[in-house]
Amino acid sequence: MFGLGVNGILQQYNTYLKTYMPSDITHVAFDKNMCRNRYKDVICVDQTRVILRASQDYIHANYVTGPPFLNTFICTQVRISF
Q1: 12-28: per-residue pLDDT in tens?
Q2: Residue 67: what pLDDT?
């Protein structure tokens, strides 16, 4: 995967993953916070989303784990300026 480069990874994403959504996945927080999402077509999944400790607990960020990665890390969108 790492040998594909950015363009190769983007091509694989657009071909195989962009429209993939397992039936047991929900995105209620994403839907309720549309004004906080930079990209409306990149879903923030409820089951793996990062929940902030503040009263406004939403950030478009998910924990990511699994092969080929050894550690869990966070993927997030760039902040929207208000």
Answers
A1: 888 887 777 788 999 99
A2: 80
- The pLDDT score that the predictor gives to residue 12 is 86
Buried b (16+ CB within 10 A) or exposed e, 50-78: eeeeeeeebbbbbeeeeeeeeeeeeeeee
Task: Tell me whether residue 75 is in a domain.
Answer: yes
Domain assignment present for residue 59? The answer is yes
Domain range enclosing 76: 23-82
pLDDT at 3: 81
